[in-house]
Design goal:
- By secondary structure, the chain is of the alpha+beta class.
- It contains three helices and two strands; from the N terminus they run E-E-H-H-H.
- The chain has a two-stranded antiparallel ribbon.
- It is globular.
- It binds zinc ion.
- The site of zinc ion has 7 residues, from loops.
Length: 82
């Protein structure tokens, strides 16, 4: 693994392995917590970066219907334009 993963000037997407350009929704961070159902001392987390669209694409069809962050960002953008 190279050092690019944590270099804030160019985050790399963990799904498509390309540099993430800053946009209205990107970069996204995925904070994965293992042993979620265990005690805190048995839990560990790691952060990965991705494009919002890559994350959404990897979700199952059912889970995509629960993904609401995109609509939150878009509604905020339309409020800012008023
Ligand atoms: Zn990507």
């Amino acid at each position: 693994m190279d050092g690019d993963l944590t270099n804030k000037s160019h985050y790399k997407c963990c799904f498509c392995n390309t540099i993430i350009q800053s946009s209205y929704s990107d970069p996204c961070a995925i904070d994965i917590l293992i042993n979620f159902d265990k005690s805190k001392k048995e839990q560990y987390n790691q952060v990965f970066y991705c494009h919002m669209n890559c994350f959404k694409r990897e979700l199952s069809n059912e889970m995509q219907s629960y993904f609401y962050l995109e609509s939150l960002v878009e509604s905020k953008m339309s409020l800012d334009e008023e």
